[in-house]
Amino acid sequence: MNLRPALVGLLALVALSGCSPNEAAPAPPTRPVLSVVATPRDDATISFTGTVQPRFSRDLGFRVLGRVVARDVDVGQTVKAGQLLASLDPMTLSLAVRQIEAELAKAEAQLVYATATKDRKKALLAQKVASQADLDTAEEALATANAAVVRARAGLDKAKEQLSYTRLVSDTDGIVTAVNAEVGQTVNAGDTVVTVAQAEIREAMVDVPDEMAQSLKVGDPFATTLQVDPGIAARGRVREIAPQADAATRTRRIRITLDAPPPTFRIGTTVTATPSRTELASIDLPPSALLKADGRSFVWVVDEKALTVSRKPVEVASDLGGTLRIKSGIDAGARVVTAGVNSLAEGQRVRIDPEMIP
Q1: Domains present along the chain, CATH in parentheses
Q2: 135 with 122: CB under 8 angstroms?
Q3: Helices 132-164 + 91-126 axis angle, to 10
Q4: Kindly report the CA angle at 131 between 129 and 137, in degrees rounded to 5?
Q5: How does pLDDT run across 15-74, given as a tens digit for each residue?
Q6: What tens digit of pLDDT does each residue of 249-295 get?
Q7: Which of 83, 178, 240, 298 has its CA 20 to 30 A from that of 61?
């Protein structure tokens, strides 16, 4: 009996049965994954320590070179507008004033003489004793004398103004926050001698992490309390956010203008500032959790009962480099895959390593 044709037919049947269209494709293998539980981040519960600072502060200095002979204020002292703060030795400028006063007196005397001469020449011309040329010369001398008086008076005004610069006065009501010169010290024109801060408008100056500063904007409300007495509080709004983070601390400085702060919020007082916005709540994930497809952003969410994954679209609020801030798309408490997101399929079974569960 020839078995070769029967063996060939049997092999053909086996091959055909292996190519049956009704046979289901093998299920994707169970894949171990790394994951984290999505926990809402509420920055409104985070507080920052800062200090009360004036919004407006003036660095005051003399406009002329001189030696300080008096300083009438100290740090922490309250001053009024127009109050004397410090003085320079006025001797040199006083002598300049006296010199120009003498020059003015001389010019005024010459003006009187030139006026009398002009009147006399005019009378003689009427009597035909003097010529027209004599009268013209007298009028020219009168004009010269008059200009000399004007110049001397302007010089005297300037000298008196220079003399007034030896007195340093406050431009506004405020508090002295710094002094940079002592009696006997010679200061240049423009050197800061006294710093006066206006106490009417006060701000809380705090440093916040760079990632939080990126989610803040001007006008966001904050609540501030005294660190020594949390029962004393004042509200305020963000006025200014530093455009760059500090290279060493990776924080940004923000200024919060306080709304009618109590008197105990003195300049330099330590305060605690807490953001009041509820919309700061968000979910932070590592960048490796994000899957981008068709111009959209997704994450893989694990069904912890069925141990399968499903792709969920999310809205990314900000990318802070090492952290993704998710605005919407996933619920708090959901387990999100954080590695290998490009190799997963919808409904694929996964295995969560208990030792890797945070």
Answers
A1: 31-41+282-356 (2.40.420.20), 45-55+201-279 (2.40.30.170), 60-89+166-197 (2.40.50.100), 91-164 (1.10.287)
A2: yes
A3: 160
A4: 125
A5: 545 544 555 556 567 778 788 887 776 554 578 999 999 999 999 999 999 999 999 999
A6: 899 999 999 998 998 998 889 999 998 854 445 677 888 888 888 88
A7: 240
Tokens linked to 73:
């204020």
